[in-house]
Specification:
With 206 residues, this protein is mainly beta. It has 2 domains: 1-135, no CATH class; 143-206, no CATH class. It is built from no helices and 22 strands. The protein has strands at 2-5, 12-14, 20-23, 30-32, 39-41, 48-50, 57-59, 66-68, 75-77, 84-86, 93-95, 102-104, 111-113, 120-122, 129-131, 138-141, 149-151, 160-163, 171-176, 179-184, 187-192, 204-205. Strands 1-3-5-7-9-11-13-15-17-21-20-19 form a 12-stranded mixed beta sheet, with no helix packed on it. Strands 2-4-6-8-10-12-14-16-18-22 form a 10-stranded parallel beta sheet, with no helix packed on it. 47% of the residues are buried. It is found in: Secreted. This is Hemolysin-type calcium-binding region. GO terms for molecular function: calcium ion binding. One of its GO terms (cellular component) is extracellular region.
Length: 206
């Protein structure tokens, strides 16, 4: 494994085709793991972490950071700050942690946890598990055939379902046992676990 480290300046560090550990430390850093199963640690500053191919672990630390995992089954942690996390392809785990974060799962069966703050969760293609955590969270769906997502902790009147590019006329909201099922154009789109008092008028259409 290659171990690379920056300093308190703004660093641009790329790894190897093997397994790398890269720490940015201070400054606004750009860290790229390339191939291999990499461990990227942003540290302080507003950092840009790019995992590349492989099963990567991306830790942002303090600052408003951008984490892009690429291909592979990856783990992304936003740390503090208002962060953007993109899992790319693969079955990924995204944790926003503190701050108002945007979590995009991408392709694959992903798990997204917003953590603290008012977060936006977009599972993408695949059957995803979405948990907003504390705050006023928004769950985004933009394709009627993207898979069936489970929203674990939806709170009516606090959290929001937002459908982008999906007409209200093709949307159904059904009660299935103790849960709410949202369908679009005949396809199951999302299940709101434990929610029994939700209807189509609560949805935001964009």
């Amino acid at each position: 494994m290659s171990i690379l480290s920056g300093n308190d300046l703004n660093n641009n560090i790329s790894g190897t085709i093997g397994n790398d550990k890269i720490a940015g430390l201070g400054g606004d850093d750009k860290l790229a793991g390339l191939d291999g199963n990499d461990n990227l640690i942003g540290g302080n500053g507003n950092d840009n972490l790019i995992g590349g191919n492989g099963n990567d672990t991306l830790w942002s630390g303090d600052g408003d950071d951008t984490l892009s995992a690429g291909a592979g089954d990856d783990y992304l942690d936003g740390g503090k700050g208002h962060d953007y996390l993109d899992g790319g392809s693969g079955n990924d785990f995204l944790r926003g942690n503190a701050g108002h974060d945007y979590l995009r799962g991408g392709a694959g069966n992903d798990t997204l946890h917003g953590g603290f703050g008012n977060d936006t969760l977009h599972g993408g293609f695949g059957d995803d598990i979405l948990n907003g955590g504390a705050g006023n969270d928004t769950f985004v769906f933009d394709n009627v055939r993207q898979g069936v997502d489970q929203v674990e902790d939806f709170q009516v009147g606090i959290d929001t379902i937002r459908l982008e590019g999906i007409a209200q006329g093709v949307v159904e909201v059904l009660q299935v046992g103790n849960d709410t099922l949202i369908k679009a154009d005949g396809n199951d789109l999302a299940v709101l676990i434990g929610i029994t008092n939700y209807d189509v008028n609560n949805i935001v259409f964009v």
